[in-house]
Amino acid sequence: MKGIGKLALLSLCCLAGACHRSLQETIPDTGGIAGRAVLTDGRPVEGAEVSVRHTRPDGSSEVLFKTTTDPDGRFSVPDLPVGKKLWISVSKMYPGKELYSAGVHATLKSGEARRLPDLKSGRMPPPMATPENEHLIE
Fold first, then answer.
1. What range defines the domain where residue 38 resides?
2. Strands 113-115 and 30-39
3. Residue 85 pLDDT > 80, yes or no?
4. What's the pLDDT at 93?
5. What is the Cα–Cα distance from 70 to 36, expressed in whole angstroms?
6. Which is the most buried residue in 65, 116, 121, 135, by most CB within 10 A?
7. What is the pLDDT of residue 99?
8. pTM for the predicted model, two decimal places
9. What was the pLDDT predicted at 36?
10. In the chain, which ranges are continuous DSSP H helix?
11. What is the C-alpha to C-alpha distance for residues 130 and 136, in angstroms, rounded to an integer?
12. Beta-carbon-side half-sphere exposure of residue 50 (alpha carbons within 13 Å)
C-alpha cells in the first residue's frame, strides 16, 4: 500500500510539473502599447507616423514596428518584445517640415498591454490646401 501511495504522489508531482511548464509556455513573451497623439490644445493628430524602436546597450537602435494614427490620433502596437528599452515616437511631416513630434520610453512586461499617456506636442498643423490658397502653402 505504501508503495502505491508513493507512486501516486510521484505521479501527481510529475503531472503538476508538466502543467506548470505548459502554463509557462502559453504566457506570451510579448506585450503591446496603445496611445494617442494630440496637440497641446487636445486636438488629435491624424495620420502621424508611429515608430517603435529598440535601443541596444551600445546606443544603436532598430525599428520594430511602424504604423499611423487614426482620425482620433489613436494608435495600437501589439506583439512587442518584453524586457527591452523601447522608444515610441510619433511625428507628422508636411512637405519636408516636421509639424508634430513627441515620444516616450517604455519597457514592457510579459503579457502587458500598456496604455500610454497622451503624447502632446505644441506644434500646429498647417492650413488645409484649397485651390484658393494652394500657392500660399510652402
1. 30-121
2. parallel
3. yes
4. 80
5. 9
6. 121
7. 75
8. 0.66
9. 95
10. 2-26
11. 10
12. 25
